Amino acid sequence: MTNLLSLSDLRTQFATDRGRVKAVDGLDLTVREGETVGLVGESGSGKSVTALSTMGLIDDPGEIVSGSVELESAHLADEFRAQYKNPEFVDGDVIDLVQAPEEALRAVRGSEIGMIFQDPMTSLNPSLTVGEQVAESLRLHQYGGRRKDSWLNAVRELLPRISRDIDDEVVERTIDVLESVGIPEPGARVDEYPHEFSGGMRQRVLIAIALACQPRMLVADEPTTALDVTIQAQILDLIDDLQEDLGMSVLMITHDLGVVAETCDRVAVMYAGEIVEEGPVDEIFHNPSHPYTYTLLESLPSEEKERLTPIEGNVPDLIDMPEGCHFAPRCPWAKPECTAGEIPYKQHGAGAVDHRSKCVLDDFDTDEYGTEAMVAKETSEPSDNPLLEVDGLKKYYQQGEGFLDRVLGVDQQSVKAVDGIDFTVFEGETLGLVGESGCGKSTAGRSLLHLTEPTDGRVVFAGTDLSDLDSDELRKTRRDMQMIFQDPLSSLDPRMTVGQTIQEPLKVHDLPASDPDVRGEVKTELSGIDSSRVTVTASDEIDAIVGSSDGVATAHVSVTVEGSEVDVSVEERLRVDVEVERDGDTVTAVDVTVSPGDSDRERQRRRVNQLLDAVGLEVGQYDRYPHELSGGQRQRVGIARALAVDPDFIVADEPVSALDVSVQAQILNLLEDLQERFGLTYLFIAHDLSVVRHISDRIAVMYLGEIVEVARTDELFDDPRHPYTQALLSAIPEPDPAASTDDRIILEGDVPSPINPPSGCHFRTRCPQVIPPEDLDIEQAAYREVMDLRQRIEKQSLDVATAREEAMEGRGKQAATVSADGGTAEHGAVVDELRESHLSYSLSPELVEVIDEALEYVVDDDWEHAADVLRDRFESVCERDAPELGTADHPAACHLLDN
Ligand code: SF4
Ligand code: SF4
């Protein structure tokens, strides 16, 4: 295979006040024709800057300071030779994109190299239709563009007729491209705007723009990061098919090692601006030769690992990188020679295998790595006592609540974010709540804490129905129920220091309070120890220890002896200092001093310091601001804040989804340790199923506002019962190139709108096992197709105009327009076209007759009758009756399980 794209000693830097950020620092990488190369690494390793450098899209204050990006393209090389006299950036068939002028780069982008960006919402222009955005790429590269010097544009101005034909051709090609990336009814949707598309469909539009001109090279920068696993599976499948059809090469940039294992031929691992290891995908995953690759793979959650092994430390400051190996400060196998001079690449694997690693070691001993940490900490079994009971919880948001709407009595539509869910969380357990974006997980979390008022239903916490509480009582109860948020940067106030952030809930709840004017009876309780050995002293600021008259500070101190341990508990909020003297195992004296203690500020400061220590932050970070911390440190601050008021129950809403795998491992370990230490109970909301599998005792699966299955974690993964759970689990990309994806269930379409969810089972519009009527003799997959056709007819979204054009083309325009039978034949041809383009399985003549009758109504623009005809024959129990979740040990809401 020839090299299509070669990056050599590429260095890209950004000028800042603090110095130059070396984002890409001497990178060598090649992509051969037809292959997919994965570029992986933690955030800040330089992956995206590499992509932008390749495309010539580095803006001020950044610049490529040295190196080359060479693209092999015989026809562009010829074009440039014709356009520029002796261009220095062209050598034979090779074009150096670093040296090429901007105008030449514009010709390369889109036509030879396409790029898919990460976030479709910010990458698409909201004011242009999706069709215009795809057409723009086509016009620019294949239809003469809008440049004044384009000969085609000159012809257009002179001959408007030619211009119209070209525009028609562009529109046709645009529709073809949208169809090739799986946009349903592209002819009808070509004039829609990005906001009218779902997240998955918007990502398809971005792919369509990148592939419109059939480039030979695709740079995909985190193309699925913003998507759910089910949609991710669709998009990866699509890229794979398109690559096969078009013979493209792909540079797949991602932090998701599962995606890399599944899609790539070769992998390059990036760390602090350099490629530290590169080789065939099997070699990298099964025989990693660089300590960074090894430790990165070790930090991933997997079925076998009881305890994760995070990489210690953080990615280095790219302004001031360590001498020698950039990974040395974090490397468990670092040696003195690692920190001096440039580290050379070493070849690994069998002679024919091109596997290189930038490390001084030939081999390293992995036996000891992580063994201490990986010993599962003693974990307590969750109890059978319910801590939280949720019964019929609903949260609807009203739309169109304007004054005029109310006066005019306009029907208000509700978004049924949470639509009647029941579940229980037991003391000490972690219940995982999973589902695609928009299924209502986060709203459920906020509603059960009453952070947003539920529309209906009951939440009973520790025996108290939260809806019975007034706002003051609710505020007090919320002390025991805290939340950790997803994005630590946006959930922390940028104007508050770490200390102030953690201290805030202490102030709100007046904790830990110091009140020297405490009244009440003081008792010194002693058990198991002779009272003559105990001295209780009041400090000067306290009048007396015993007494209950006004102005007397009092305390309740109990001293118990268990074996050789002396445990002093203080029931009033005074400072108690205890000194215990022992002779061997025998306690000889106990001195208890009671004083008013510190001021509120001092106590709170002490508590904050304890919390910083508990979550693994330095006390010195008390005065730092959120922007001065790494992502993992910010999430630790969020956790410390939640722990500040000593809660029993924590809702953790996607607490690790914004973090890299190694930081994710640190936070998951921390959450487990804190649960053990403080006896916490968690509701852990996440869309990453491998994370949920690692941390949860039980898992509840949500779909469109409802819980569809609940089971113990191992049972759910071994025996998923609901078709949605089955699809969700099958879509998880495994970080193992040998893992098969043959059984993968690719769900079609997106989660429907919660404004008007499907009747009966909400999943029926996507369910691959939707149940046909008993008297219908039809294959399951064929029935799914018919149901999809019905949905399109119900939504009136069949593209009849395009079907008519296709039918006319098929029959020959002449025959169609001069139809001798008054249009009946034409009508039939459109019906045939509609049926054939939507149904690929053969059906019995009886069923074809019913479908054709419905399609005739469609062609006559009578959509309601069409929908009725199909409903009469094809209606499923799944759309008539909503399945119940039930109360069995492993319940699932599906009619397939009815008996
Ligand atoms: S060169 Fe040294 S510090 Fe760097 S990865 Fe290899 S052993 Fe570790
Ligand atoms: S009830 Fe029907 S549509 Fe819903 S999951 Fe079960 S089979 Fe599928």
From TrEMBL:
Key word Nucleus present: no
Subcellular location field: Cell membrane
GO molecular function: ABC-type nickel transporter activity; ATP binding; ATP hydrolysis activity
Record carries keyword Iron-sulfur: no
GO CC terms: plasma membrane
Domain ABC transporter: residue ranges: 5-297, 388-729
Domain of life: Archaea
Membrane-topology annotation of the record: Peripheral membrane protein
Catalytic activity: Ni(2+)(out) + ATP + H2O = Ni(2+)(in) + ADP + phosphate + H(+)
InterPro entries: AAA+_ATPase, ABC_Ni/Peptide_Import, ABC_transporter-like_ATP-bd, ABC_transporter-like_CS, Oligopep_ABC_C, P-loop_NTPase
Enzyme Commission identifier(s): 7.2.2.11
Quaternary structure, from the entry: The complex is composed of two ATP-binding proteins (NikD and NikE), two transmembrane proteins (NikB and NikC) and a solute-binding protein (NikA).
NCBIfam families, sorted: oligo_HPY, PRK10419.1, PRK11308.1
Name of the molecule in the record: Nickel import system ATP-binding protein NikD
Organism: Haloferax litoreum
Organism placement in taxonomy: Archaea, Methanobacteriati, Methanobacteriota, Stenosarchaea group, Halobacteria
